[in-house]
Amino acid sequence: MATIILPRSLIALFPAAPRRCDVDAATVAEAIDRLDELAPGMRNRIVDAGPVLREHIKVFVDQQPAVLGTSLRPDSTIHVIPAVSGGQATGRSA
Amino acid sequence: MTRNLLLVGTSKGAFILDGDASRRSWSLRGPLCNGWPIHDLSVDPADGAILAAGGSAWYGPAVFRSEDLGSTWSHSSEGLTYGDDGPKIPTIWNVTAAHGSIWAGAEPAGLFRSDDRGATWSHVSGLRDHPSRPGWEPGAGGLICHTIVPHPDDADRMWVAISAVGTFATEDGGATWEARNRGVAACFAPDPYPETGQCVHKLVMAAGEPDSLYQQNHCGVYRSADAGRSWEDVSQGLVSEFGFVMGAHPRDPATSWVIPLSHPEEGRLSPDGALAVWRTRDRGDSWERHGDGLPQKNAFVGVLREALAVDRHDPAGVYFGTSTGQLYGSVDEGVSWSLVADHLPPIWGVEAVALD
Question: What ipTM was assigned to the predicted interfaces of this complex?
Answer without folding.
Answer: 0.93
